[in-house]
Amino acid sequence: MTKFIFVTGGVVSSLGKGITTAALAVLLEKRGLKVAIQKLDPYINVDPGTMSPFEHGEVYVTEDGYEADLDLGHYERFSNAPIGRHSNATTGSIYSEVIRKERAGEYLGQTVQVIPHITNEIKKAITSGAAEGADISIVEIGGTAGDIESLPFLEAIRQYALERPKTQTMFVHLTLLPYLKASGEMKTKPTQQSVGKLREIGIQPDVLVCRCEHPMTEGMRSKISLFCNVRESDVIQEIDVPTTIYEVPLDLQKHGLDSAVVNHLELPSVAKVDMSDWQDLVTRWANPKHEIEIAVVGKYIELHDAYKSIYESLAHAGTAHNTKVHFRKIAAESLLDCEVSESLKGINGVLVPGGFGERGLEGKINAVQWARENNSPTFGICFGMQAITIEYARNVAGIKDANTSEVDENCANPVIDLMAEQENVSDKGGTMRLGAYACRVVPNTRLADIYDRDMVFERHRHRWEFNNTYREQLEKAGLTASGIFEKRDLVEAVEISDHDFFVGVQYHPEFKSKPLAPHPLFDHFVAASLRLMLNSNSAQSVEA
Length: 544
Ligand code: GLN
Prior knowledge:
Blueprint: E1 3-9, H1 17-29, E2 35-41, H2 53-56, E3 60-61, E4 67-68, H3 71-78, E5 88-90, H4 91-103, H5 114-129, E6 136-141, H6 151-162, E7 169-176, E8 179-180, E9 185-186, H7 189-200, E10 207-212, H8 218-228, E11 235-239, H9 248-254, H10 257-265, H11 276-286, E12 290-298, H12 308-320, E13 323-331, H13 340-344, E14 349-352, H14 361-373, E15 378-381, H15 383-395, E16 402-404, E17 413-418, E18 433-441, H16 446-451, E19 455-462, E20 464-466, H17 471-477, E21 480-485, E22 490-495, E23 502-505, H18 520-543
Helix pairs in contact: 1-3, 1-9, 4-5, 5-6, 12-18, 14-15
Glutamine binds next to strand 19.
């Protein structure tokens, strides 16, 4: 029988609820438990696929082709929980289903209401979110206690707990202890008030996780305990970690979060929880031997979260090579009216991420041209792969007006063209080519060296594709198609074989990298960038 941990947040948003949830999953898995994780989001979008990365960060894609909140990315990077469309529900998806049933007459004449119809649908989603055979399902509720829109979700989890034995469910509430510089102290009042909000609607948190910049004193712990009606041993400090978010599981273990959960849910105790692999990861992260700088040339550069999985994947690969990866974030648009070589000077590698629409494409193409001509390790992902193809067509294969029909509908030479299956698609949400597809790796290519496998499964999110009309011409000119989706003879990867690393992939490898298992493409890209840095340093010292 699956046990449920409901994680809510109070005081402010952006407290790191997703990371805390993911870290708790790690600690429970280390105790031999099978964990599922789910996010319930109070916004009205049916899924986050239609949200702008400027506003909401990247759209993460699951293996089964669901366009998801980036928190699901944290869940997958940290834990082994099976993540897919069952791992998320939103106000939009819940209401869609209830309205569908009402139109179909399934409520048999009843008045359809928030309680019980919406809350019942939420409870159903919670049950199906617990993947088959999970010992524990951790359910994170988006938003902050007191928000109007999260009320039905809080009501649903209250009922869910009420309907089950006491040790089958529990509530973990994450709050903030703000630090007031003027008085030099941390305050507990906002925590008391947000717990008060939960108690008003019938939820008594079992465990409080308190985010803070400074250590929590014993005095504060007992005050919080008294006012919030939570045992002192269940008031857990979660302090900002200095090195990396991957230190959070270690820190929470040290402060007893997993023990508190084990006690509440009466889970079997284990003699020793071995965290040595995470400890080793954090030690390597904190003590790099080398440093490299990678240019990320994108459209949504201002917001770190817009390319979250890419930055994470680069850092994972860096740590595997004992290397700190610095990011030079370059707005692609800025490469139109400035000297590209100035912007990219001294860079050890160039990464061009995914994107949509006209803005930034020409700047990305300029960056790719500079990287190709200067032998820089170059990695194009999705729109980045398309930019590599257009640049090569224009500047090497001599197809001067090559473009993508996404940007120029009437282009004479669309080397990137709309996929046939997309021609009559007008709805935006959930209609791209999404999720994992099999890619055959062409033998004797860089890609084959990198993967050391002949078939890989990678995740997609696009509408345009490499146009096979130009395949022969481009291959003859030296752009090799190195990955193929055989069913439809779709080019999934291109490369220039005489460069150390010059690879473009139509898919998103960044969704499959983990801190303890970096993705081979990122691993090899970072390795090539490191080689470039070490070689140019030794060339400089010879000159000196
Ligand atoms: N806009 C391009 C397409 O739809 C690339 C998409 C992406 O980079 N995710 O094909």
